């Protein structure tokens, strides 16, 4: 029975990508009694951020399933038909699978559309307030509400709101992660930073395509058009971020970009205020209350719970897909005060989201390790990856479908990743390569001969080892977060991951034996 202090069924903290779509999804689900939802956001002004500007086709599909496809309209959004990867003037075209299209836009405009959709949804109160704390029940230590400071026209007002369920969607810098996760808290690891600028009327190597520029001894550079005249450039920089960013980009990055971009990038960098965001890694941890060491009455969604590298532009796609599954799960629960039912739902949600979320998460860091390569063996893999794409056919279709999130399969990702690793070795043995000969001397093109083979054989083993060391820990972070008592999770892991991984490992080992 509803507590007198509980005017809401659900409180959602944060009206960003996940929060707005969740509020809209819950309100739009037919139920016996319509839900009363409070969506709290610290600022309802249009956000101005360098995040969430390209939505992959898989994200567009999830948005359609949520009935929110109109939020992509009337914001000067740009169609995205695929990617191209460049190494100086060498360019590989990687179109999305036929019939699929992504969209890119100014983040703030898209968020305003999402907020309007949430505001219009029946039973949703959008409140401009900063949530300061979670309110715990004194008897059960369950979370029963939030304490917030409401932004009024003249001054601020402290309020307390209560609900059966509190959902935290306060993004990558979440203030409540620790409180919700308790002893199992897992802190984000920042791998690098993206520094963002906007280019005016830039010409990209392929129009309406995301562009990934690989550079030597610096991180990858990402470009995509986000409006009729605006193109976002994100430059990956490792910590410590150089104090002279302008000099770093002009001297180290620009000469390695395709020449078609030189003028617009130089102009943008000259007069720019750089924006910087951390590229963080945060594996998802099972939630659901005491059994899993987390709080009851509350759970996390979106970046507050799970983050991956933004290189592959997958964050919003994961968030929307999560909301689709969560909506269907919560639709089966009539009363959110029945925590046992919510806990069981969260457990199912955790595993049901894995095919897409794990694929996107692993791909983002595996590609980042390859494209941001700063070691010799990774450089071999990076060259092999570029050449793999040049083969065309399934060598493009497979990886791009994973990137687009139209295929949700860590096993397919495993297959292509190790196919790239073996192909990289083949390339190393058979293709001529440029060797640096020291200052003042021109690099020399060397074709491997028989005398190089012993050295190359050792290198091949190191390259495979490097591929394993990149991929398997990422896979492990996706499957290890289960409770030892959770028998269903163990079965899921065994069948969904264990079997394909074992099968592919056998194939990979066989291929290795046949090749060498
Ligand atoms: C550099 C960079 C580039 C990226 N580019 C892409 C991309 O191109 N494509 C893609 O799909 N993903 C991208 N991402 C990831 C994507 O931005 C996130 O996955 C997505 O925004 C997560 O949504 P969210 O709702 O969890 O958080 P957010 O969208 O950040 O929303 C959180 C909301 O909570 C509010 N809030 C925070 N604290 C409080 C509080 N105490 N009280 C009330 N409200 C609060 C905030 O104001 C905000 O509105 C990128 C990430 C980075 C770092």
Your description of this structure?
It is built from 14 helices and 18 strands. It has 516 residues and is of the alpha/beta class. The chain has 3 domains: 192 residues, FAD/NAD(P)-binding domain; 92 residues, D-Amino Acid Oxidase, Chain A, domain 2 (2-Layer Sandwich); 143 residues, no CATH class. The longest helix has 29 residues. It starts with 7 loop residues before the first strand and ends with a helix. The structure holds flavin-adenine dinucleotide. Flavin-adenine dinucleotide (FAD) binds next to α1, β2, β3, β8 and β15. This is Squalene monooxygenase.
Concise structural overview:
The protein is of the alpha/beta class and 516 residues long. The chain has helices at residues 17-28, 57-65, 107-120, 177-181, 245-253, 262-270, 315-331, 339-352, 354-371, 376-390, 394-404, 410-430, 453-479, 487-515; strands at residues 8-13, 37-41, 54-55, 78-80, 82-87, 90-95, 102-104, 124-136, 143-151, 156-168, 189-200, 210-214, 221-225, 230-237, 275-281, 298-300, 433-435, 444-446. It has 3 domains: 8-53 and 107-187 and 282-346, FAD/NAD(P)-binding domain (3-Layer(bba) Sandwich), CATH 3.50.50.60; 189-280, D-Amino Acid Oxidase, subunit A, domain 2 (D-Amino Acid Oxidase, Chain A, domain 2, 2-Layer Sandwich); 373-515, no CATH class.
Q: Which CATH architecture of the largest domain is right?
A: 3-Layer(bba) Sandwich
Name the average pLDDT.
89
- Please count the helical segments: 14
SS content category: alpha/beta
Top keywords for this entry?
single chain, 516 residues, alpha/beta, FAD/NAD(P)-binding domain, D-Amino Acid Oxidase, Chain A, domain 2, 3 domains, seven-stranded mixed sheet, five-stranded mixed barrel, 18 strands, binds flavin-adenine dinucleotide, flavoprotein, Squalene monooxygenase, membrane, transmembrane
């Amino acid at each position: 029975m509803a507590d007198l202090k509980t005017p809401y069924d659900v409180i959602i903290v944060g009206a960003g990508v996940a929060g707005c779509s969740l509020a809209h999804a819950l309100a739009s689900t037919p139920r016996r009694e319509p839900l009363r939802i409070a969506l709290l956001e610290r600022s309802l002004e249009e956000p101005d951020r360098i995040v969430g500007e390209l939505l992959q086709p898989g994200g567009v599909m999830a948005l359609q399933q949520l009935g929110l496809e109109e939020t992509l309209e009337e914001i000067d959004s740009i169609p995205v038909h695929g990617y191209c990867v460049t190494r100086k003037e060498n360019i590989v075209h990687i179109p999305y699978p036929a019939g699929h299209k992504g969209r890119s836009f100014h983040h703030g405009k898209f968020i305003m559309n999402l907020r309007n959709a949430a505001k219009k949804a029946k039973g949703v109160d959008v409140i401009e307030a900063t949530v300061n704390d979670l309110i715990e029940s004194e008897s059960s230590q369950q979370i029963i509400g939030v304490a917030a400071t409401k932004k009024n026209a003249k001054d601020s007002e402290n309020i307390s709101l209560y609900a059966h369920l509190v959902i935290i969607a306060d993004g990558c810098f979440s203030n409540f992660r620790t409180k919700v996760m308790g002893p199992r808290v897992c802190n984000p690891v920042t791998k690098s930073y993206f520094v963002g600028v906007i280019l005016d009327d830039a010409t990209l190597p392929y129009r309406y395509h995301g562009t990934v520029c690989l550079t030597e001894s610096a991180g990858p550079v990402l470009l995509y058009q986000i409006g009729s005249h605006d193109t976002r450039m994100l430059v990956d920089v490792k910590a410590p971020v150089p104090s002279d960013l302008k000099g770093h980009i002009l001297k180290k990055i620009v000469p390695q970009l395709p020449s078609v971009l030189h003028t617009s990038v130089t102009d943008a960098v000259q007069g720019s205020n750089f924006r910087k965001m951390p590229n963080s890694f945060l594996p998802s941890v099972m939630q659901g209350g005491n059994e899993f060491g987390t709080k009851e009455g509350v759970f996390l969604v979106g970046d507050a719970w799970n983050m991956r590298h933004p290189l592959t532009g997958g964050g919003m796609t994961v968030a929307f897909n999560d909301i689709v599954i969560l909506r269907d799960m919560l639709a089966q629960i009539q009363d959110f005060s029945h925590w046992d039912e919510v806990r069981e739902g969260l457990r199912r949600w955790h595993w049901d989201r894995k095919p897409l979320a794990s694929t996107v998460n692993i791909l983002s860091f595996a590609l980042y390790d390859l494209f941001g390569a700063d070691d010799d063996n990774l450089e071999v893999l990076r060259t092999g990856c570029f050449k793999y794409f040049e083969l065309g056919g399934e060598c493009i279709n497979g990886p791009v479908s994973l990137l687009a999130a139209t295929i949700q399969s860590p096993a397919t990702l495993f297959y292509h990743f190790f196919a790239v690793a073996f192909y990289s070795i083949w390339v190393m043995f058979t293709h001529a390569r440029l060797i640096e000969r020291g200052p003042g001397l021109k690099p020399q093109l060397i074709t491997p001969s028989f005398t190089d083979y012993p050295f190359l054989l050792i290198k091949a083993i190191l390259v495979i080892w490097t591929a394993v060391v990149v991929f398997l820990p990422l896979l492990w972070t996706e499957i290890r977060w289960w409770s030892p008592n959770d028998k269903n999770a163990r079965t899921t892991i065994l069948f969904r991951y264990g079997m394909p991984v074992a099968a592919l490992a056998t194939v990979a080992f066989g291929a290795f034996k046949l090749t060498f």
